[in-house]
Design a protein that fits this description.
Blueprint lengths: L10 E2 L11 H4 L4 H20 L5 E6 L5 E5 L16 H7 L3 E2 L18 H6 L1 E10 L2 E11 L5 E15 L4 E8 L1 H4 L6 H14 L4 E6 L4 E5 L5 H9 L10 E7 L2 E9 L6 E6 L2 E2 L5 H20 L12 H5 L2 E8 L5 E2 L5 E2 L2 H19 L4 H31 L1 H11 L12 E6 L1 H10 L5 E6 L11 H5 L2 H10 L16 E5 L4 H17 L1 H5 L3 E4 L4 E5 L2 E5 L5 H8 L4 E4 L8 H9 L6 E3 L5 H12 L3 H11 L7 H6 L2
Parallel strand pairs: 2-9, 13-15, 18-19, 18-20, 20-21
Antiparallel strand pairs: 1-4, 2-3, 3-8, 5-6, 5-8, 6-7, 9-10, 11-12, 12-15, 13-14, 16-17, 21-25, 22-23, 22-24
Helix pairs in contact: 8-10, 11-12, 12-15, 13-19
Length: 648
């Protein structure tokens, strides 16, 4: 890799013009995720510079006019003329789709930006974009705007100020300020919380990076820099659990154009948590690199167990799942020619990555086992695996019992599950409903052709605190498993899913929220693919009904109530629903179950690491962490305005 970086190094793949016409093709959505995506496209460029050894700091500033600024101390975008495009490097990068130095491995050995679509898309979807470059002892500036052309259409990223030298500087780097176009995104604003979550993750994954975020609107400021990199990340993810040893095992290995970092720490929990990344991109669906890492862990520790006679000659090796119980694993791979697969393009498909990771991980783990005092940590891991093997056997017996009881479970389902008539799984929906009363209304009000109802009688088990054999012993959980027909854990098979939508329908109170949390925790721990494949939803029942002669409207939030009562005029009546059971079947269907009128929240995992922290905080054993979260986010001063204003 050379530090010489010029305009000729920028490889052009294709032109730019359809971005504004179909922004979803380039950023996925024009909602909050896509809105923030155009920020990360700029940040990715800065990350690539720093990952390649040029610079150390990125500063993200949220400005009061709604724009964002990203500034780094890298080499600065090339300002010389591109040999074939006959434009400056800055203009090429910001006006040509898929143009950049990262397509040439002599400039960027590894690049996260390849997963995205380039800074030109940010430019195309902005009202204006201002680029300042410090390079060659000089300061350069260029400005772009999205303007209406003679054809009456808005053309994004038009040059309104050509690249101009504006001063002298001893610094290097690039500063980009852009204002997302409200004609594309509406009145959305950047979320400080969303940005710091991703910024923290990037700082963990790049231990040579310092990343600052400053919000001029609120004066909020955060700065992330982790000397330990992903080892610190593993410790962060294990917070709230009881770690079995103090410091994660950290491995860093490189083979030509392939780099692997791995950190693993064991806790006393019962599930595995693997967080993998390729070129800083989260691979939430896993892939070949995860398979290689798991194989290495299993092989190395089984071999070690044999070498110290922990496993006797006639004893069987531990299985991979035995070494995965309680494991928090962070895996970061840097490589070229990445092939992403899966529904959301977050699964690594490169077959060579499995071999590379397995080989490098075996080498790194073997080197770890030669270090002083490593035998203590290794012994803890083997004891954990031994206990997991016993749990596995207990779970096997529980599953066999569960299978033996399947006819009984199915018999019980006859009394619990109100099945749908349709055999079309793509259309079929299962409502998991809190309580027999609401379940009765839902059964009567539903569309029997495709909607099934499963009432819950009491709260299911909190799966976060239990072994899998204990989970399988809970009747409510077993009923859900029987209804879905997918199995759980190692036996989970998404292709057997009976319903395309699994909808949690509970009261809008504390008990209802707790039931939702328990069910989501169970799905997250033992049926995670239900969530990642987009099958889990939360139904939103109304909080109020405002009515008078000739007027009736349902209200789904406290914030919307004043507007509806104002619309109703004088003489209205407000009914507050304390639970689903207070609605008759027709009302429940009309407000909450009718596909034409209802509102469903789809449960997603955009940030697996933050999802893990949330589940552990809310459902785990760390009471103080839960108190801190509630104190930070709960509104203890909220007044019951209904009682004050509408009780008469």
């Amino acid at each position: 890799m050379t530090s010489k970086y010029e305009a000729k190094d920028i490889v052009v793949l294709e032109g730019l013009d359809a971005v504004r016409l179909r922004p979803g093709m380039y950023i996925g959505t024009t909602g909050p995720k896509g809105f923030h995506h155009i920020l990360w496209e700029i940040v990715d460029n800065s990350i690539d510079e720093i990952s390649s050894g040029f610079g150390s700091t990125i500063r993200i500033t949220l400005n009061q006019d709604g724009s964002a600024t990203v500034e780094d101390d890298g080499r600065g975008i090339p300002v010389d003329i591109h040999p074939t495009m006959k434009k400056s490097g800055v203009e090429v990068v910001y006006t040509t789709l898929h143009a950049g130095g990262k397509f040439n491995t002599s400039n960027y050995k590894f690049s996260g930006g390849l997963h995205g679509v380039g800074a030109s898309v940010t430019n195309a979807l902005s009202r204006w974009c201002d680029v300042t470059v410090n390079r060659n002892g000089k300061i350069y500036n260029m400005r772009f705007e999205s303007l209406e052309g003679e054809d009456g259409k808005i053309h994004g990223g038009q040059v309104v100020k050509p690249l101009t030298e504006i001063g002298k500087s001893t610094l290097t780097g690039t500063k980009v300020t852009f204002l997302p176009d409200d004609r594309i995104f509406g009145n959305q604003q950047f979320s400080f919380e969303t940005i710091i979550k991703r910024a923290r993750e990037l700082a963990f994954l790049n231990k040579n990076l310092k990343i600052e975020i400053f919000d001029k609107n609120t004066e909020n400021y955060e700065c992330f820099h982790f000397e330990g990199g992903i080892a610190d990340f593993a410790k962060y993810l294990a917070e709230g659990k009881n770690s079995l040893y103090d410091e994660p095992i950290y491995i860093e290995q490189e083979d030509n154009d392939f780099k692997m970092e791995m950190a693993l720490i064991y806790t006393d929990s019962y599930t595995e948590n693997c967080f993998s990344y390729v070129n800083n991109i989260p691979t939430t669906e896993g892939g070949t690199h995860e398979t290689g890492a798991r194989s290495a862990i299993t092989k190395v520790f089984n071999d070690y167990a044999r070498s110290i006679n922990f496993l006797k000659e006639k004893e069987l090796n531990f299985l991979g799942e035995d070494f995965r119980e309680g494991l928090t694993l962070v895996l970061s791979v840097k490589m070229n020619n990445v092939q992403f697969e899966g529904q959301t393009k977050t699964k690594l498909g490169n077959p060579e990555a499995r071999v590379k990771v397995e080989t490098l991980a075996i080498k790194g783990l073997q080197e770890f086992l030669k270090r002083k005092n490593s035998d203590k940590v290794a012994g803890i891991i083997l004891e954990k695996a031994k206990g997991a093997a016993k749990t596995r056997e207990a779970a096997k017996r529980a599953k066999e019992l569960s299978r033996a009881q399947k006819s009984a479970d199915n018999f019980n389902l006859v009394g619990k599950l109100a099945a749908s008539y349709s055999k079309d799984r793509e259309k079929a929906e299962l409502f998991i409903v809190e309580g027999d009363s609401a379940g009765g209304s839902a059964k009567q009000g539903r569309d029997r052709s495709f909607q099934a109802i499963l009432p819950l009688r009491g709260k299911p088990l909190n799966a976060e605190k239990k072994r899998i054999d204990q989970v399988l012993g809970n009747e409510e959980i077993r009923t859900i498993i029987s209804a879905l027909e997918t199995g759980i854990g190692e036996d989970f098979d998404i292709s057997s899913l009976r319903y395309n939508k699994v909808i949690i329908l509970s009261d809008a109170d504390q008990d209802g929220a707790h039931i939702r949390a328990i069910l989501l925790t169970f799905f997250y721990r033992y049926m995670r693919e239900l969530i990642t494949d987009g099958h889990v939803f939360i139904g939103l029942p109304p909080l109020y009904k405002v009515s008078k002669k000739g007027f009736e409207e349902y209200v789904y939030s406290d914030a919307d109530l004043p507007a509806v009562t104002s619309k109703a005029g004088k003489g209205y009546n407000v009914q507050r629903y304390k639970g689903l059971g207070e609605m008759n079947p027709d009302q429940l269907f009309e407000t909450t179950m009718d596909p034409e009128k209802r509102t469903l929240l789809q449960v997603t995992i955009d940030d697996a690491a933050e999802a893990e922290k949330m589940v552990v905080t809310l459902m785990g054993d760390d009471i103080e962490a839960r108190k801190d979260y509630i104190s930070k986010h709960a509104n203890f001063d909220k007044i019951d305005e209904f009682m004050e204003e509408y009780k008469s």
